UniProtKB/TrEMBL annotation:
This is Transcription initiation factor IIA gamma subunit C-terminal domain-containing protein. One of its GO terms (biological process) is transcription initiation at RNA polymerase II promoter. Keywords: Nucleus, Transcription. One of its GO terms (cellular component) is transcription factor TFIIA complex. The lineage of its organism: Eukaryota, Fungi, Dikarya, Ascomycota, Saccharomycotina. Pfam families: TFIIA_gamma_C. InterPro entries: TFIIA_b-brl (IPR009088), TFIIA_gsu (IPR003194), TFIIA_gsu_C (IPR015871). CDD domains: TFIIA_gamma_C. Residues 10-52 form the Transcription initiation factor IIA gamma subunit C-terminal domain. It is found in: Nucleus. It comes from Wickerhamomyces pijperi. It comes from the Eukaryota.
Length: 58
C-alpha cells in the first residue's frame, strides 16, 4: 500500500544551505495547501533533501 498526496506551499525563504550533498531550506510564514483544499499556516517550515544515490553512483 502507498499513500499519494500532494501539497503546495508559499512563504518567505529565510535560509538555505548545501553541505555534504544535502540541501536544507528554512521557509518562514508559510501557507500550506493540501489536495482537499485544507490550508495550514505555520511560522517555520524546514525541508531537507538529499540524493538517493551514494556519491560516485550513476
Amino acid at each position: 500500500d502507498s499513500v499519494k498526496s500532494k501539497l503546495t506551499f508559499k512563504g518567505h525563504l529565510h535560509t538555505y544551505r548545501f553541505c555534504d550533498d544535502v540541501w536544507t531550506f528554512v521557509i518562514k510564514d508559510v501557507n500550506i495547501k493540501f489536495d482537499d483544499n485544507e490550508t495550514v499556516n505555520v511560522d517555520k517550515f524546514k525541508i531537507v533533501a538529499c540524493n538517493s544515490k551514494k556519491a560516485g553512483e550513476i
